[in-house]
Amino acid sequence: MTSSITKRLEAAQTIVKHAAKIAMDMRPPPGGPTGKLKQMQDWVTEADGAVENFIGEQIKNLFPDDGFQGEENGQTRSGALRWVVDPIDGTSNYGRGRNRWCISLGLMDGDTPVGGIIEAPIQHETYYAQKGKGAFLNGARISASTVTDPSTAMFEMGWSPYTTTKTYLEKMQAMLELGAMPRSSGSGALALADVASGRLDGYLEIVINLWDVAAALVLLEEAGARVTPFIQHGGLERGISILAAAPGVAEQLGNALGYSF
């Protein structure tokens, strides 16, 4: 099975590179916003559909027995191995011509994430991980940061229309009281990848979906980061919270924010 997964992920890297070119060609100029609202601050653009459809068709041609699930079209095929794609993660950024967005493609074996590719074409960066084989950024192995003091930590929290302002502010206050430096950049997949690479020491999203995290879960595990049990807590069925953190500050962040690993 390991060789079969490796074969799939190698092919998927090429597919995602081509998908990134589609997204770049369709990328709107600065300004906006461009796209349609699904809900307050929850955007979808023509590129979301085009990229998802392209990846889905390419996967189907190469691996017709594999399942496929996308943010825009849902689960269109079932299979023991299932691909989960967020065609444009950070759509609000993408739709304004901003740079912080990516394509996120994860591979799952049943309920277990086994591979992930996150392509950030503006940054010329490709994150790649396979379960048991390490996590990489542009071919170089990555690992979570060695920070142990929250007062020196850099932390990001995503904003979502699916949580209350009160809850968001409570979590932000808890983070600030630890002395962590806050950030918010609009792409959950890239923020989780930043935790895996040590660029961030923690990331919290109060409500996030499987397609946002499927690729990053493998990256985080292979990079030695700590992650709350997203799959076990119902992340396959609905949007739930995720907290990812460098191992040296994970318990402190978890205790302050009300999450356990």
TrEMBL record:
Domain of life per record: Bacteria
Nucleotidyltransferase as UniProt keyword: no
One MF term in the entry's GO annotations: inositol monophosphate 1-phosphatase activity
Entry binding sites for Mg(2+): E71, D86, I88, D89, D212
UniProt keyword annotations, A-Z: Hydrolase, Magnesium, Metal-binding
Cofactors: Mg(2+)
Record-given protein name: Inositol monophosphatase family protein
